[in-house]
Amino acid sequence: MDMQTLYLLVPLAPLVGAIAAGLFGKVLGRAWSHRITIALVGVSFAVSVVIFQDVMGGHIFNGSVYKWMSSGSTTFEVGFLIDRLTVMMMLVVTFVSLMVHIYTIGYMEEDPGYQRFFSYISLFTFSMLMLVMANNFMQLFFGWEAVGLVSYLLIGFWYTRPTAIYANLKAFLVNRVGDFGFLLGICLVLMVFGTLDYQSVFANAHNYVNDMAPIPGMSVGLLTAICILLFIGAMGKSAQFPLHVWLPDSMEGPTPISALIHAATMVTAGIFMVARMSPLFELSETALSFVMVIGAITALFMGFLGIIQNDIKRVVAYSTLSQLGYMTVALGASAYSVAVFHLMTHAFFKALLFLAAGSVIIAMHHDQDIRNMGGLRKYMRWTWITSLIGTLALIGTPLFSGFYSKDSIIEAVALSHLPGSGFAYFAVVAGVFVTAFYSFRMYFLVFHGEERFGKDHHDHQGDHADEETSHDHHHGLKPGQKPHETSWVVTLPLILLAIPSMFIGYITIEPMLYGDYFLDSIYIAEGHHAMAELREEFHGAFGMALHALTTLPFWFALAGAVSAWFFYLKRPDIPEAIKQKLSFIYTVLEQKYYFDRFNDWFFAGGARGVSGLLWKFGDVKLIDGFFVNGSAKVVGMFSGVLRGLQTGYVYHYAFWMIIGVSALLTVRTWFE
Amino acid sequence: MIFGYPLLSVAIWLPIIFGLLVLATGNDRNARLARIIALVGAVLSFLVTIPLYTGFDRLTSAMQFTVQNEWITRYNINYFLGIDGISVLFILLNSFFTPLVVIAGWKVIEKRVAQYMAAFLIMSGLVNGVFAALDAVLFYVFWEAMLIPMFLIIGVWGGPNRVYAAVKFFLYTLLGSLLMLVALLYLYHQSGGSFSILEFHRTPIPSMAVQVMLFIAFFMAFSVKVPMFPVHTWLPDAHVEAPTGGSVVLAAIMLKVGAYGFIRFSMPILPDASHYLAPVMIALSLIAVVYIGLVALTQSDMKKLVAYSSISHMGFVTLGFFIFNAYGIEGALLQMISHGFVSGALFLCIGVLYDRVHSRQIVDYGGVANKMPVFAAFFMLFAMANSGLPGTSGFVGEFMVIMGAVKANFWYAFAAASTLIFGAAYTLWMYKRVIFGAVANDHVKHLHDIGARETLVFAILAIGVLVMGLYPLPFADIMHASVNDLVVHLNISKIPN
To answer: Which stretches does DSSP call E strand in B223-311?
Structure first.
């Protein structure tokens, strides 16, 4: 088979799986549905590996698959750009997707929507692959919206739950706010460059550095406007402040998709997009600065929220928000390769953490409250060890994959001189402590300490936040019941994800960050030195780990882990006391800085209010009431008058005739 | 003439003849026969239009498949038919919908079946006449005649408040149509005694004041049909009272004739007035997109909601026309086709629910997915298409129009793109309340999923929506020559400096 057929095979194989399980799921039955979808995603992964080798051999492909449409002199095409950035994303997407497919057999075992679920996750894999393989903005937008659609369908997978269908609508609409900016950005690109093809746009970008954006009434640089509009799209998809609000609620979806979509792949689409657009972003320091500040706010402030969450999935969700913030900061610091590197390592260890959380949830019979867990390490060996690996990777323990990526981000930010980089540096360093603290808080509460499961759950009745976030089908273990390790379809993916979580950073940091891996994919402008300086300081992966022992982030991480141990295992009374004393701060965190309240009141409520007003006064009262029915009345009145005129008396008619003739004569004389 | 017979005449008169045949079956004792004849007629009428597409010459912007016969020689009125890249797709769309409407009404309509089916067939022929007519008087005759079956459909098979709806419709449309007639007579005079629309395109109208007045006269006729803000309020009422089939044809086909009027008459005949008044047209279009989008949000009646959604989507059409570039005009035409599929499908979805529960109120539903999973899947697809999701037809036109709008003025695009948010909000919020959730009441509990007949209709529309979304080239390709020619023509002033 030639390479182009292989390129097509990668996205189409999961699509075929999705169609098979979706349309013929009933005929195929459960077993065949998962066999077919898993086999096809496996094909997709295997082919991606082949393509990876081909690309490493220096073969970059950029070509069209079919002509979508044309208008005027512009043609819109569906096509692929297969370079090293793409192929890395393809590997990550297909590998994590494969793991999640296998895991789903165990997680969704008892669910009546089994086939539907497999169909959705295969469809997601297809959409995500189309997104990363795109060679033009339009297809990017296609993939962008398609993954949003599948995310919507999957968050609302359990569609009878009010919380799930609230969360999925919210996710879709918040993402649409981002897409609003994204689409306008794409429109500006088309208008200015006359094409949506990446290569042509990137090649010409430098000609527009000094141009102003064609936006009447605003004087802003063209590329700045384009980049910020595109980034607004990324803020929606990658859940950056203030469009982050949908991601925690997306945890209403089944756990496998939290791992696949809301941790490893879809939410990183924004990061990928900005990295892909590096030839544009590099030309606007204002945009880069904006990106960095937004990322820093997300990295730090979303981390804080992770500390007080009690739902196991929500802790991981806030951690994801915070880590996405880290990646965004790296983008702002012109360290695109570092951002993508963190994207990759994060995909492995965060998917691992989510799937491990799912394993715990299965064992706890769908009780997700970490206050009802504890001591699980005795019952769930594999889940415990893999979770520990994931946690260590997340907090940046030297030699683990997360360490290499996160430490590189911190270093890169330190070297940035853009406005806002000081704040960003503070945020990412402080974030290290916060990350370690909430990660180990969760780890200790779940796997160590007193066994709190199998008790009456009415202890927490008075806790309103808990009721709000909890599911309506909290089962939990019955008194005396013990949790046990989940089946191999669940633990195998955990193990397969734990391996890269440990080693992938060590192996790949040198080629990806300091070698020429991204040479053809990522462009860095002359004046942005961060990566070059990092390269000079880099003396091998092991040396980097050794050196880290003397730096601030390492000690911050250690301090975070130790404090978590102290507060939640040693002296659990202290956090309680702090909660009482600092109830104001606690409430602010618990209310997630009041963003949801505000959005519900201002945007959702406001839109409904305005809508009602416009309808009642605009349409019903003014147009219909006054003009339409009013003119009907006027017609009625006129006809009354006319009826009155038609009296049947000849002298009345004669009178009007005289009036008419004289009027006509008058008009005639005027015009002469 | 191709294939030895005048295709356009057949496209117009075949459904009308079949309509009369159906009428001849008489009363409801022969209902089954009436249905079968109607279906055969509708399918045949669609099949005969296919050569219009396959035999269409894409390289020319000239009228094709023309038929010209003398009609009323004293006034130089001719039976003059022809289509170009702008009108060809609408004839296909219209003929495509007739069989679907017949199938959709197969079981639902039990009273006066023959008359019902006949009304749709005859209307189909008349609408084809509107799109094919190149003689202004012929156009006017079809334009007025097609209203009669629609009046009957709403009036006879409509809901309880049908009289108010019909009167409102009548008031709105009559005023406009009469002014258009005046404008046509003026143009007859001005062109030296011709009613040929093509002649009108060439007729010099050197005074801006006259152009503006003629524009307003046409505007009165066309804007009501589109409908544009602020003359849109008849539409929600008409939809609510109309039976499902009526709503489908009203939304999918009838709204298009207004927009078609703008692009066939107002713009090429009055290029200077069109440019002069473009800011007003754009403003009204954007109000339709934003204001109506917001108004749709709060509707409690599903049909009203989709009706408002239609108005909002048609705002894209008029916006696309009056930004005067190829993206905008092609986008607008594609939006018209797509809106036909999507709004037709959505009204059919509501019809499916109404047939079972006899309510259009959103609050009467909830958790329908539990009982009607197949239906829920189709409804989801059409809801997403209505929200303009890429990969569905709903995206193509909006995307192109927004592209075109950026060229004209960034802020036009900004306002138009808000539909990304509002369109998704009102559509998916409705979907959520109707389809998702736990089973809400006994009515929902006793729902049964769609049968083979309904599935067939939805599947055909779903394929249409997806094909057009994934591969719009065949739809766009056919209109290039005519649109490019129009864009050039629009920039040639009729007023000598």
So the answer is: none
